[in-house]
Amino acid sequence: MRKTALLLLATTCVTVALAGELAALAFVESSGKHAAVGDGGKARGAYQFHKGTWDEVSKRRAKAGLPTWDWQQATNAAAADDYATYALNDIRLALSKSLKRPVTPTDVYAVWNLGFRGYQRRGYDITQCPAITRRAAKKFEDRAILAFSAK
Q1: How many domains is the chain partitioned into structurally?
Q2: pLDDT digits over 4-30, tens only?
Q3: CATH no. for residue 123?
Q4: Cα–Cα distance for residue pair 128/106, rounded to 1 Å
Q5: pTM for the full model?
């Protein structure tokens, strides 16, 4: 019984943390606007998905037997939320396997923004990232922590 309660508590904490990160990501990337188009038309939706990233998430979701959507649906709130949640989980899993320390929201945002290899090339060190990424990562972390503490 105690084990089940601890597992439920851990799952709830992860879910709340992920929800906070999802809201923070949408705020940082597009001020939460699902219809947003950025990066010269290359990025779409609240999470500013590029087509290549969307397609990669689609492949992984299809392999897992989950529904997939065409990139045009990146501005659809439900589809984008599902894709961003899936991608954030993937990012956290990959970072937890690679880092010799706990994963932070800053790490998660840096991978979202630079890609896993881009952050890896910088030694998983936010101070080695472009200034625009550092500023956005700080906003992301502040928002994610605020959302988590509000729950």
Answers
A1: 1
A2: 432 333 333 344 447 889 999 999 999
A3: 1.10.530.10
A4: 13
A5: 0.84
